[in-house]
């Protein structure tokens, strides 16, 4: 299968490395420098695995693909979607963004849309170098409703060392990831700490629990069940730096609008800490 991957960040590089084992992969990037480095040096996965089969192109050089996987941040989608329509109007699209604030952009899309969550840990070191910091899975659901193509897609992408699973309910799938992002990402970005400190610092732990309570009430999810998940993930990724903190440290816009901003659009109750972390992250973005 010919697969186009949009976005040369950590997830785009990671997917390109693994999927190129069995598919023809084209990685679409924004900058000429990254395109040149990948095409001349390949992609370095971890410290010693060089992937040379992936070819990089600029977004405006896009060609027809059998599948497009969109890995750019949610706040970059508006710039990317018009170009996807021009070249791949009928190509199935898989979106792998954090949060849910971008879903409305896909409502009138003319082709088959899939939504997914990435549970892998990945850290981009250089333009063409990515570290696989945590083994996980990719879970995919069809949008707006289930169809048979979902299972064909999963069978084609699944690898024993890079698993891909089907999920029936896209909303449940994205909400489960949203809870994690809404608690871990803003707090680590605001206080500039690694994920594990949300458990070892008593004050941060209390704030994390409060954010969990507010978020689960808004999304009508089980509070204690989700708090256990958050603790488990924070423990498993204790030494990791969240993507939102990486964005803040790199003076880039974060995905706060699609994560916490989405929760603020649900007018069901007072949510003071959710409002605070939203404004705090936006303030740090403006400062940067």
UniProtKB/TrEMBL annotation:
It catalyses: (R)-pantoate + NADP(+) = 2-dehydropantoate + NADPH + H(+). Keywords: NADP, Oxidoreductase, Pantothenate biosynthesis. InterPro entries: 6-PGluconate_DH-like_C_sf, 6PGD_dom2, ApbA, Ketopantoate_reductase, KPA_reductase, KPR_N, NAD(P)-bd_dom_sf. GO terms for cellular component: cytoplasm. Pathway: Cofactor biosynthesis; (R)-pantothenate biosynthesis; (R)-pantoate from 3-methyl-2-oxobutanoate: step 2/2. Residues 3-144 form the Ketopantoate reductase N-terminal domain. The keyword Transmembrane helix does not apply. GO terms for molecular function: 2-dehydropantoate 2-reductase activity; NADP binding. The keyword NADP applies. Coiled coil: none annotated. One of its GO terms (biological process) is pantothenate biosynthetic process. Catalyzes the NADPH-dependent reduction of ketopantoate into pantoic acid. This is 2-dehydropantoate 2-reductase. It comes from Ornithinibacillus sp. 4-3.
């Amino acid at each position: 299968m010919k697969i186009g991957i949009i976005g040369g960040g950590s997830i785009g590089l990671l997917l390109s490395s693994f999927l190129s084992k069995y598919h023809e992969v084209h990685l679409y990037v924004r900058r000429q420098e990254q395109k040149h480095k990948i095409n001349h040096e390949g992609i370095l996965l971890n410290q010693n695995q060089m992937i040379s089969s992936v070819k990089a192109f600029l977004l405006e050089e896009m060609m027809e693909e059998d599948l497009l996987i969109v890995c750019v941040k949610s706040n970059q989608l508006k710039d990317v979607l018009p170009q996807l329509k021009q070249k791949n109007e009928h190509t199935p699209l898989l979106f792998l963004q954090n949060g849910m604030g971008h879903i409305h952009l896909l409502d009138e899309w003319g082709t088959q849309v899939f939504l997914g969550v990435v549970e892998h840990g990945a850290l981009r070191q250089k333009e063409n170098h990515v570290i696989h910091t945590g083994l996980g899975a990719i879970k995919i659901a069809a949008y707006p409703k289930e169809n048979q193509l979902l299972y064909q897609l999963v069978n084609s992408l699944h690898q024993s060392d890079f698993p891909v699973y089907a999920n029936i309910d896209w909303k449940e799938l994205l909400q489960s990831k949203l809870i994690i992002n809404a608690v871990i990402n803003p707090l680590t970005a605001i206080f500039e700490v690694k994920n594990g400190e949300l458990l070892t610092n008593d004050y941060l732990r209390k704030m994390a629990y409060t954010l969990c309570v507010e978020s689960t009430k808004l999304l009508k999810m089980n509070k204690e069940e989700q708090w256990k998940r958050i603790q488990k993930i924070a423990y498993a990724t204790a030494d990791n730096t969240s993507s939102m903190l990486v964005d803040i440290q790199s003076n880039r816009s974060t995905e706060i609008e699609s994560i916490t901003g989405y929760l603020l659009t649900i007018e069901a109750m007072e949510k003071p800490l959710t409002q605070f972390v939203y404004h705090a992250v936006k303030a740090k973005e403006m400062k940067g």
